[in-house]
Amino acid sequence: MSTTSNERLPTYFIGHGGVGILFKPGYGPVQQDLREIGKEIKALKPEAIVTTCGHFEGDSDAIQVNLKEPTKVWHDLGPSWHTTFPHKVLQHLLDKGIKAEGVERDLDHGIWVPFKLMFPEGEDELDIPVLQISTYAGNDLDAHVRLGEALSSLPGRIVFIGSGMIVHNLRAMREGTTDTTVARSIEDAALKALSATTPRERDAQFLALQKRDDWIDAHPTEEHVLPLYMTLGVGRDWSEYKVWNQDRYIVGLSFLSFRLGTLPTTSEVLSGRL
Known about the structure:
The structure is a single chain. The protein contains eleven helices and eleven strands. The chain is of the alpha/beta class. It has one domain: LigB-like (Protocatechuate 4,5-dioxygenase, Chain B, 3-Layer(aba) Sandwich), CATH 3.40.830.10. The strands form three sheets. It has a six-stranded mixed sheet, with helices on both faces. Strands 7-10-9 form a three-stranded antiparallel sheet. Helix 7 (181-194) runs antiparallel to helix 8. It starts with 10 loop residues before the first strand and ends with a helix.
């Protein structure tokens, strides 16, 4: 599983939502954009997907790597999966100075809900290994940028996906108000950050969100936004981006999703690299 720097695949942050987006009325546009992201990722033909989400936290100073062989819902893998790739990722993090440990757990809804839409059964059966790693516990955004930077040098054609929400306040949603001011404001700030002239400035603007007066209203707890900062670390060298599910928010939730990096060129596809 060797690679060179110009073979790195783009990275994604997706707003995953809850189980309701699979069947409740009104989520058609959100579903469609997640399907488009999934088709784009499938076309990249990655060797594996490494993902982290807001429902899997490690310790404040340690990352957990799921060593359990994933469910057959997503793919049918040979016996080598369990003993090779997850352990390679774990060792890679350790080699990069990231405190990490192996655990065994099932995939949570932050993965299987959006993946059900991105790779719907009967349309695009997912035959790509999926490995979930944790975030850190707590609210250290910089630590998650560094985690992404460490992961970015993992060899192979790997797609990294941060699954969370750029605004996640279930209490506000349940109160039944119609005020989307916070969701709109935070999403606008995120779009401004994405359009920054350099990745360094982009990261600085995203890190500054934590200091906003309305941040606590967007994230009473910050576990759902941490995967975004992992994505920033993976895409530290890329200024190019694409946005999905913009302006598709309800009170307390934003489904904004984006890609950092560009897709391979037509010549790369024709040369057999895809």
